[in-house]
Design a protein that fits this description.
Alpha-Beta Plaits, Rossmann fold, nine-stranded mixed sheet
Length: 391
C-alpha cells in the first residue's frame, strides 16, 4: 500500500469506529482486525501503519468527529506532510475549500466537571498515553522471581507484588507460561483491587460483576481453599472464565444472573458472604489509554444510567455480606459520581456500615476510598473503597 492508500484505509476504519461508538458496537481494535481480514493484500507493515494512524486520530479527538476524513484532517493539522497525500492515486480525495478538521482535545468538555478534583489538568495527557502490558503471576503455581527471567524487557510492577510489566507491543498468548496457567494479562490497577480484598483461605467470596473473571482468578490464587463465586449478567463474558480457570487450576464457580432478579438467584448467599467484590459497570474513563474511543461512547444519559446501576449493585451486595464481613467497591473510572460520591451516598443510606482504608500502597485518598490514575500511579484509573458491615 502507498502512504496515500494507507491514509484512505485509516479514514475508512475511522468511519466504522465512529459509527460503532454511536451505535454501541465493537471496539476499535476489533474493527481494525476485521477490516484487514477482508484485505489480504495488505502486508504487516501496512496493517501496522494504518492502525497507528487510526489510534493517533482517536487519541487526538476528545469529542466524536463528524467522520473519518475530519479525524485524519485533524492529524494533518499537526503533521502537514499528511495533507500531501490527499488527491494522490488510491488516496483520499483532495481537501475541499473550507473543509474542517476535527478539533484536538483530551477530555470532552461536558465531562471535565465530572472528573475527580484530584485529577489535575496536568495529568490529563497521561490518560491517553499507550499503556504497558502488565501480567499477573498465578501465585498458586509460581512466583514473580521465577518468571521474570522468562520474558524479554520484563520488570516487576512498582506496586503489586504479583505483577510483571512488559512493553506495550508485547505478545504473551503464545508463551509457554501463559499456556501453563502461570500468568494472566491484568493491569496492575486491577491486581490492586484483588489485593485490597485481602482474601483468606476458607472464606466465602462473591465477585458480583465478574465479567471474564480476572479478579476472581486473582482472588482464588491468593486464597487457596476459599469458596469463590463469580457472577455476571453477560453470558458471553462470563463464559470466558471457565477455560481460564481450568488453565490456572483455580476452583471458581460461576453463576449467570438475570437482572433485576439477582437477589432471588443468590438467595443461598444472603448474609453469608465474608467478602463481596463489586467491580461495577462504569464509564471506563480510567481505561482511555487502552480504549480511547470510550470518550466518544459516553454521554450524560449513559452516565446517569451507569450511576443508577452502581447504586443498585451496592444495595444487592450489602444484602449478601455477613455481619462483620466486608464489601469492596471498585470502578475503572475517574469520575466523582461513580467513585467517592457513590460511596458517600451508600454510607448515608446504610448506617450500619463503616469504611476501612483499602491497604494498598498506591493512589490518593478520595473520600473514604483511593483513586489510582495513570499519571500518578502508572496504572489504569480506578477508584477503590472498602467497607465493613457492623457485627
Amino acid at each position: 500500500m502507498t502512504p496515500a492508500a494507507r491514509l484512505q484505509a485509516a479514514i475508512e476504519v475511522l468511519d466504522e469506529v465512529i459509527a460503532s461508538t454511536r451505535d454501541d458496537g465493537p471496539p476499535a481494535d476489533t474493527i481494525v482486525t476485521r477490516y484487514f481480514k477482508h484485505r489480504r493484500y495488505a502486508g504487516s507493515k501496512d496493517r501496522r501503519a494504518v492502525r497507528e494512524l487510526v489510534f493517533r486520530a482517536i487519541r487526538r479527538s476528545a469529542e466524536r468527529p463528524g467522520g473519518g476524513r475530519a479525524a485524519v484532517l485533524g492529524l494533518a493539522a499537526d503533521d502537514p506532510a499528511l495533507i500531501g497525500h490527499f488527491g494522490e492515486p488510491r488516496g483520499p480525495a483532495p481537501r475541499a475549500d473550507g473543509e474542517e478538521a476535527a478539533p484536538a482535545g483530551l477530555v470532552p468538555d461536558w465531562l471535565q466537571r465530572e472528573l475527580s478534583p484530584l485529577l489535575e489538568e496536568a495529568e490529563w495527557s497521561a490518560l491517553l498515553e499507550r499503556a504497558p502490558l502488565d501480567l499477573r503471576v498465578n501465585v498458586a503455581r509460581s512466583s514473580r522471581d521465577e518468571l521474570l527471567s522468562q520474558f524479554d524487557a520484563a520488570a516487576p510492577t512498582p506496586i503489586s507484588p504479583w505483577g510483571i510489566r512488559l512493553p506495550a507491543d508485547s505478545r504473551v498468548d503464545d508463551h509457554a507460561a501463559y499456556a501453563a496457567g502461570m500468568i494472566e494479562i491484568q493491569d496492575e490497577g486491577s491486581q490492586l483491587i484483588a489485593l485490597a480484598c485481602e482474601p483468606e483461605a476458607g472464606e466465602r467470596i462473591i465477585d458480583l460483576c465478574a465479567g471474564a473473571g480476572g479478579k476472581s482468578l486473582a482472588i482464588a490464587a491468593a486464597a487457596p481453599g476459599a469458596s469463590v463465586l463469580a457472577t455476571d449478567s453477560n453470558r458471553a463474558r462470563l463464559s470466558k472464565l471457565a477455560p481460564r480457570a481450568e488453565r490456572a487450576g483455580a476452583a471458581v464457580e460461576t453463576r449467570l444472573l438475570s437482572p433485576p432478579g439477582e437477589l432471588d438467584e443468590l438467595s443461598d448467599w444472603h448474609g453469608a458472604a465474608d467478602l463481596v467484590l463489586v467491580d461495577a459497570p462504569c464509564s471506563g474513563s480510567g481505561t482511555w489509554r487502552r480504549n480511547p474511543e470510550g470518550r466518544w461512547r459516553l454521554n450524560p444519559e449513559r452516565l446517569n444510567r451507569l450511576v443508577e446501576v452502581q447504586q443498585r449493585l451496592l444495595d444487592i451486595a450489602a444484602r449478601l455480606v455477613r455481619p462483620g464481613g466486608r464489601l469492596v467497591y471498585a470502578v475503572c473510572s475517574l469520575l466523582s459520581r461513580e467513585g467517592a460520591g457513590q460511596i458517600d451516598g451508600f454510607l448515608q443510606s446504610h448506617s450500619s456500615w463503616i469504611s476501612e482504608d483499602p491497604l494498598i500502597a498506591a493512589g490518593r485518598s478520595d473520600g473514604v476510598g483511593r483513586l489510582l490514575t495513570p499519571g500518578h500511579d502508572g496504572t489504569d484509573g480506578f477508584f477503590i473503597a472498602r467497607l465493613k458491615r457492623a457485627c
